[in-house]
UniProtKB/TrEMBL annotation:
Residues 62-213 form the SGNH hydrolase-type esterase domain. The keyword ATP-binding does not apply. Keywords: Hydrolase. Transmembrane segments: none annotated. SUPFAM superfamilies: SGNH hydrolase. InterPro entries: SGNH_hydro, SGNH_hydro_sf. GO terms for molecular function: hydrolase activity. This is SGNH/GDSL hydrolase family protein.
């Protein structure tokens, strides 16, 4: 099983090299369809993170990808989502996105997981993602977004777009603009994060501990700014 805490100090240069190489192979491309073992690890991590609830107050559900999950951190519960106010529940799955084929691990898109995740009876649903849709056609992202909005009908929703991760920087403007446009069509607050200067791990895709803190604090502040009182409720 791959060790998630890639930032933990270990003795011996050879061990460090092996750990860095493993992370690069594991996370440069979260799409895992060709590796059942990797998909199994993603599912294990998803179950573990779903069991971690942080904060107090009105329940908040975060549906997201490896960033919400906390991939690369010693403690999955320290992912950026824990910086949000309220009783935060996370449904995260590494490699997943809005489009059905963002991940190769089966039916794990945001739409595919939303109905089950809503069992937490959230006061607010925060959907974070887009980086794993980097190579997906606009039509697939559009379809997945609309299916997700149907799932979330009757709920208050905020969409958090992709940050400018160096390894996928070229695709971020296209995905960011598409998600912003779709959010506006549905009247859903959209939080842009592509302007944030964040700290990344060696794979240039996932956040460091400081990166999670900075991203979480920025998202929390921006959610308040775009939706200071009652976020838009998705019409049925």
């Amino acid at each position: 099983m791959l060790h998630r805490g890639i930032r933990r100090r270990v003795g011996g240069a050879s061990v460090v090299v092996l750990l860095v190489a493993a992370l690069m192979a594991f996370s440069v491309d979260d799409r895992a369809g060709a590796d059942p073992t990797r998909c199994q690890q993603h599912r294990f991590d998803a179950r573990e993170r779903s069991g971690i609830v942080t904060g107090e107050g009105p329940p908040v559900l975060v549906i997201g990808d490896s960033w919400s999950l906390g991939l690369g951190q010693d403690d999955l519960g320290s992912s950026w989502a824990a910086r949000l106010p309220g009783e935060v529940h996370v449904d995260g799955f590494s490699g997943s996105g809005f489009s059905a084929r963002a991940s190769g691990c089966g039916r794990v898109s945001f739409h595919d997981r939303a109905s089950t995740a809503l069992g937490t009876r959230p006061h607010l649903v925060v959907v974070e993602g887009g980086l794993n849709d980097h190579d997906q056609p606009a039509a697939a992202i559009d379809r997945g977004f609309r299916e997700l909005m149907a799932d979330l009908a009757g709920h208050r929703v905020v969409i958090v777009g992709p940050a400018d991760a160096p390894s996928r920087s070229g695709a971020v403007p296209r995905v960011d603009a598409l998600l912003a446009s779709l959010s506006a069509e549905y009247g859903v607050p959209y939080v842009r994060t592509s302007d944030l200067d964040l700290s990344y791990l060696e794979d240039r895709l996932h956040l460091t501990e400081d990166g999670h803190r900075d991203f979480g604090d920025a998202v929390a502040d921006r959610i308040t700014a775009v939706s200071p009182s009652r976020p838009t409720v998705i019409a049925g």
